[in-house]
Design a protein that fits this description.
The chain has one domain (about 5-285): Metal-dependent hydrolases (TIM Barrel, Alpha-Beta Barrel). About 45% of the residues lie in helices and about 10% in strands. It contains 13 helices and eight strands.
Length: about 300
């Protein structure tokens, strides 16, 4: 079996998983995932669609959840071939640098993932300085949810994300969702900041015919979509692709089809499906065992 990597999955403890799916069903009642979905169900769906490895993200909503969620992710990924754990942290967690060092020394986790909208903080919040500085010193990456402001009814100005990259130059960062729709600015950042990566999760769904009305509302309309494809092709060695399953843009097979059917070179698609994520993990965990797969 060849390798295929989903760079964005959320398998959580049962009570959190149920709450997560109920949240998306409240926003989109026709979302094709029921709140009864289990970790076993998710793994089965991933395997059915030939996913061999996936990044598993957790994010605490309360400070007291930080330790428990990270322990869950560590134990779940240790017993699940192909699962790659990333740590989470609440912005009010004390001694963030020391806690991060403890987790990274364990060598179970690759880095950290944050969802600032859901966790109610700004990525550039000064409270996060000790963590970012520690991660930069340890050369460990941090993922940020970016973009989709209108869905969350919150603001994450692209100008402030640019300042964040400049302020912590040298810290490996991943802008998940490519600050959609400010993706073109993210492409410009890639040219100047070699430690920045992008994740195209949920972005490619906007090439579906169902979203034509939304595309027409964007500045540049179809030209924007052409520029999006051009940027993805140019920077494919720095862009990953995942599903956000079980709360991504529709059924799992539709999300993967979004990439498969685009007019992009095969090499570009292989970078997004496999190469960039594999190289990313090899960089931060050189002894990672790729033979340990979902089967």
């Amino acid at each position: 079996m060849s390798i295929r990597i989903d760079s964005h999955v959320h398998i959580l403890p049962p009570w959190r998983l149920k709450a997560l799916v109920r949240w998306i069903l409240k926003a989109y009642p026709n979302h094709p995932v029921e709140d009864s979905i289990s970790a076993t169900d998710i793994l089965s769906h991933l395997k059915t669609l030939d996913i061999t490895h996936f990044f598993n993200f957790v994010y605490p909503l309360k400070v007291e959840e930080t330790e428990g969620l990270n322990q869950f992710n560590k134990e779940f990924c240790a017993k699940t071939p192909g699962a790659i754990p990333f740590a989470g942290m609440h912005p009010e967690t004390p001694e963030k640098d020391l806690y991060a060092e403890k987790l990274m020394e364990d060598e179970s986790f690759i880095g950290f993932k944050f969802h600032p909208f859901v966790q109610q903080f700004d990525p550039w919040d000064k409270r996060m300085d000790p963590l970012y500085l520690s991660l930069r010193e340890m050369k460990k990456p941090v993922f940020f949810h970016t973009g989709f402001e209108s869905f969350y009814g919150q603001k994450m100005p692209i100008a402030d994300l640019v300042k964040l990259v400049k302020r912590y130059s040298g810290l490996p960062m991943v802008f998940v969702h490519m600050a959609f729709p400010d993706c073109l600015t993210c492409f410009d950042l890639l040219d100047d900041y070699p430690e920045l990566y992008l994740d195209a999760t949920n972005v490619l769904a906007f090439f579906r015919p169902d979203f034509e009305g939304f595309v027409k509302s964007l500045p540049g309309q179809y030209r924007f979509m052409d520029q999006l494809l051009e940027g993805i092709e140019k920077h494919s060695n720095r862009i990953m692709y995942g599903s956000d399953y079980p709360v991504g843009m529709g059924a799992l097979e539709d999300i993967y089809r979004d990439l498969d059917q685009l007019s992009l070179p095969d090499k570009t698609k292989e970078d997004l499906r496999i190469n960039t994520a594999r190289n990313f993990i090899n960089r931060f965990q050189p002894d990672f065992n790729w033979d340990r797969k979902l089967r």
